[in-house]
Specification:
Calcium-transporting ATPase, cytoplasmic domain N; 2 domains; six-stranded antiparallel beta sheet; 13 helices; 41% helix; binds adenosine-5'-diphosphate; binds magnesium ion; Copper-translocating P-type ATPase
C-alpha cells in the first residue's frame, strides 16, 4: 500500500506545479545539495530575437545575409533558428540541408554553400573572426552569436537576444538560502554563459558543452560528492536528466526530456523546482 503521506504528497505536488514520475527519485530530492540548470529555455525564456547583423565583408547586404541564413534555418527546429526566421519576410528554397548537433546548420541556398554555426565551430575549423571586439561586446551583453559562412567565406554574424526569466532570480536566491549550490550547463558560448551566471549569482557554470557531453558534466559535479538535480527542457538534455540523481523536465519541453525525467514542472517556472525540493524534504521528514 502507498503510505498516506506519500499519496498526499502526490496531490500536493500537482498543486505546487509539478508531477512525480519516479517516486524513488522524488525521495532523493530531499538530499539534493546541487542543482544544474540548462540555460536556454530553462533559466531563460528560450525565445530569441535578432538584435544585430554584422558584416565582415562587402559581398552581401545585411538584408541579404539575413535572408540567406533564415532560408537555411527554416529547416531547423532550434530556438535560434526560429528567431532568425522570424526576422525576415520571405526565404529561398534549401537543398542538401544538414544539422550539426550543438554546432549549427549547413545547406545549399541560391546555388551557394551556406553554414550558420556557433563560435565553437569556427574555432574548431581554425577560422579567424575579424573584428572580434565588436562581436565580443555583443556576447558580453548576454547575446548569442551565430556566424554565417557562404561558400567557405566568413561573411557575417547574427546576434540574438533571449531573456532571463524573472522567476529564475527568485528560484536561485531561495535555493542558495536553502544551502543548495546552483549551476548552469549550456551549449551557448562562454561570454553569454558568464553574463547569465553573474546576473543570477550562480556558483558555477559550464559553457560550450556539446549535447553528448552534458551527462559527463553532471557526473563531474556528482564526483565532487554532491547529490545533483538537473533541470532541462531539450532533447539534448535527456542523457543529463537520466544521469542526475533527480532529473527535472520543464513540461513544455521536448517529449524525450519529459519521458526521461523523474519530476515534471507543469509550468515553465524555475520556482517550482524550489517547491519540489521543499515538498520532498517535508514529506519524507514526516515519514521517519
Ligand atoms: P543549448 O544548450 O543552449 O540548448 P545547443 O546545444 O542546442 O544549445 O546549441 C549550442 C550552440 O550551437 C548554439 O548556441 C548555437 O551557437 C549553435 N546552434 C545550434 N543549432 C543551431 C542552428 N539551428 N542555427 C545556428 N546555430 C545553431
Ligand atoms: Mg535547452
Amino acid at each position: 500500500a502507498i503510505p498516506l503521506v506519500v499519496s498526499v504528497s502526490t496531490s500536493k505536488a500537482a498543486n505546487e506545479g509539478f508531477l512525480i514520475r519516479n517516486r524513488t527519485a522524488f525521495e532523493q530530492a530531499r538530499n539534493v545539495n546541487a542543482i544544474i540548470f540548462d540555460k536556454t529555455g530553462t533559466l531563460t525564456q528560450g525565445e530569441f530575437g535578432v538584435t544585430d547583423v554584422k558584416l565582415f565583408k562587402e559581398n552581401y547586404s545585411r538584408e541579404e545575409l539575413l535572408k540567406l541564413a533564415a532560408s537555411l534555418e527554416t529547416r531547423s527546429e532550434h530556438s535560434i533558428a526560429q528567431g532568425i526566421v522570424e526576422a525576415v519576410d520571405e526565404t529561398y528554397e534549401v537543398s542538401d540541408f544538414n544539422s550539426i548537433t550543438g554546432k549549427g546548420v549547413t545547406g545549399k541556398v541560391e546555388g551557394k554553400q551556406l553554414a550558420v554555426v556557433s563560435p565553437g565551430y569556427l574555432e574548431e575549423q581554425d577560422i579567424e573572426i575579424p573584428d572580434r571586439e565588436q562581436v565580443d561586446k555583443l556576447a558580453s551583453e548576454g547575446k548569442t552569436i551565430v556566424y554565417v559562412l557562404i561558400d567557405d567565406s566568413l561573411e557575417g554574424a547574427i546576434a540574438l537576444g533571449d531573456q532571463i526569466r524573472k522567476e529564475s532570480y527568485e528560484a536561485v536566491k531561495k535555493l542558495k538560502e536553502a544551502g543548495i549550490q546552483c549551476m548552469m550547463l549550456t551549449g551557448d558560448n562562454k561570454q553569454v554563459a558568464k553574463y547569465v551566471a553573474d546576473e543570477l549569482g550562480l556558483e558555477d557554470y559550464f559553457a560550450e558543452v556539446l549535447p553528448d557531453e552534458k551527462s559527463e558534466k553532471v557526473k563531474e559535479v556528482q564526483s565532487r560528492g554532491l547529490v545533483v538535480a538537473m533541470v532541462g527542457d531539450g532533447v539534448n538534455d535527456a542523457p543529463a536528466l537520466a544521469q542526475a540523481d533527480v532529473g527535472i523536465a520543464i513540461g513544455a519541453g521536448s517529449d524525450v526530456a519529459v519521458e526521461t525525467a523523474d519530476l515534471i514542472l507543469v509550468k515553465n517556472n524555475p520556482n517550482d523546482v524550489v517547491a519540489a525540493i521543499l515538498l520532498a524534504k517535508a514529506t519524507y521528514r514526516k515519514m521517519i
